[in-house]
Write a structure and sequence with these properties.
The protein is of the alpha/beta class. The protein is built from ten helices and ten strands. The strands form two sheets. Strands 2-1-3-4-5-10 form a six-stranded mixed β-sheet. It has a four-stranded parallel β-sheet with strand order 7-6-8-9, sandwiched between helices.
């Protein structure tokens, strides 16, 4: 198996070297698909490799930023971009993070969290059109103030908790921000299938009565159980879990209609 990365990026070579060592694979920084299974770091430059692997029915592994504890942990999945199916896990790894699930709360504003244009293009979507459709639907169903998240800056992840102040609900495409919001007690709407779909809603017509499910603990345990440090990845912990034949979720993000 080859592990594909981007040499010019900061994290990509670190993850690729670790995953290759843990899985017995070989690292390449050439954007050319070789024979066999595929492991790819989540870089827009490498998105076509994933599409080709999907089209050819190959098994593919994906690495990207963590669900929780970014910069220390990294999520790894098999035949999926993230976990979209809830499995069984103990609270051990979640408790190691030292995080708490906050009670559900109310707010006045709605926070829309679009991802990059490159991310939308990889999933066959247009960022501008998605945002336009979301804002149009929200205007039909609520009079609340709608704020579009600005993710720029070096402290974007740290700033997110502050941006959730007085927020009634967040709306995401496939962003992990949806999961993080729910852990802070803010309901989530996800327009495409993603990890946040497991605790959120997909119908913006329900924006005034968002879901507040009681399974956040199970989701937190499961996601924490499916992310690893570079040392753990290097020692084969991620590979051992991923190579047991279980799928991580959908091969491609399922589209949820935004038409009202």
């Amino acid at each position: 198996m080859y592990v594909y990365g981007s040499a010019g990026e900061k994290t990509s070579p670190l993850w690729c070297e670790a995953f290759a060592q843990g899985s017995g694979g070989r690292v390449t920084y050439k954007c050319e698909l070789k024979a066999g299974d595929v492991a790819v770091w989540g870089s827009p430059r490498l998105s076509n490799l994933i599409k080709q692997a999907q089209a050819e029915g190959r098994t593919w592994y994906y690495g990207d930023k963590a669900y929780f504890g970014r910069g220390v942990y990294y999520r790894c999945t098999r035949n999926a971009y993230m976990q979209t199916q809830l499995g069984h896990a103990t609270p051990h790894r979640w408790e190691q993070l030292g995080l708490k699930i906050k009670p559900w709360r109310s707010g006045k504003r709605i926070l829309v969290c679009p991802q990059s244009e490159a991310h939308f293009k990889h999933h066959g979507q247009d960022r501008g059109k998605w945002l336009e459709a979301v804002l149009a639907q929200l205007s039909q169903y609520t009079d609340r103030k709608v704020v579009v998240r600005d993710k720029s800056g070096t402290n974007a992840e740290q700033d997110f908790e502050q941006q959730l102040a007085d927020v009634h609900a967040v709306v995401v495409f496939t962003s992990i921000a949806g999961v993080q919001a729910t852990m802070h007690g803010v309901p989530c709407f996800a327009t495409h299938e993603c990890a946040a779909s497991l605790v959120g809603d997909n119908d913006l017509a329900n924006i005034e009565q968002p879901r507040r499910p009681d399974n956040r603990e199970q989701l937190a345990w499961w996601l924490a159980d499916n992310q690893w440090t570079l040392d753990e990845i290097r020692r084969g912990m991620a590979w051992q879990k991923l190579s047991n034949g279980e799928e991580s979720g959908s091969q491609q993000m399922s589209s949820i209609s935004l038409t009202g």
